[in-house]
Amino acid sequence: MPSPNTAVSGVSGTSPPTHTPPRTDTPGPSLTKRDRPDGHDRHNRPAAPRKRRALRVPRAVRRAAGPVGLLLVWFLASTTGVLPESVLASPIDVLQRAVELTDTGELPQAIAASGRRAAIGFLIGATVALALSLTAGLFRLGEDVIDASMGMFRAIPWVGLIPLFIVWFGIDETPKIALVALGVTYPLYFNIYGGIRSADAQLIEAGRMVGLGRLGLIRYVILPSALPGALVGLRYALSTAWLALVFAEQVNADAGIGYLMSNAQQYFQTDVIVLCLAVYAVLGLLCDFAVRLLSRRLLAWRASFDGEGA
What we know:
Blueprint: H1 4-12, H2 59-79, H3 91-104, H4 106-138, H5 140-154, H6 162-169, H7 173-197, H8 201-209, H9 214-248, H10 257-266, H11 270-298
Helix pairs in contact: 3-11, 4-5, 4-7, 4-9, 4-10, 6-7, 7-9, 8-9, 9-11, 10-11
Family: Belongs to the binding-protein-dependent transport system permease family.
Main location: membrane
Keywords: Cell membrane, Membrane, Transmembrane, Transmembrane helix, Transport
């Protein structure tokens, strides 16, 4: 005789429903480190301390900190009497004299005259240096003829050539421009020449394998490899141009920053002397800043080390 359960199953055609108790091992929503009051996560690990954002000072401010600090020390030394006015004028006196000479037009005219000499001398020296460095760097015969002579002439102090330049060119503008050109030639020549000769031989061989001729190798491999060295030489050449101009304008000059310095030396005007030196420094700094911008644009393809830290 069939069991009651079987009869019921036969009539309904389905098995009786079974009651499934709710699971008690299902994990509920876990509390995060922020939700837990003890600061621990669900694995009972202590929360990592939050890092405070360090205060970053802009690089422009850090670069200006050095000159501003020197000016502050100079001002304090002059104000307290540690630095007498007979030895070195105070920054306030120098600034007042700069305003006076600007109002009378003497300072702008002097800057224009010196800038014209520096520009002409730089163009002449850069042209000569570029021609000599390319000839010596690209051709062995040019190296044999030029490089040894340049190394020999570099050992001669170019400032000591001023009396000889006066004998050759007189006392007008020519010896001043020639001295600037000579000072520019050496750093440009040696840096461009060194950059050409430091080109990677494997890159040159790879260029030959892809079918580059001599002109193609020079244009696409050798000259780009020499560009970083050329820009370094350009920075040295610009600073040397202003340095040479300081000496050149001491020789019978009737205009320019050196002319103002010579007159101030006769009357013991230390404020004018310091002002002229400051003008030379600012002009050199502006040229160096321009070369830095040019380097960033021309060498954007080249990965370089920019230093560590913020």
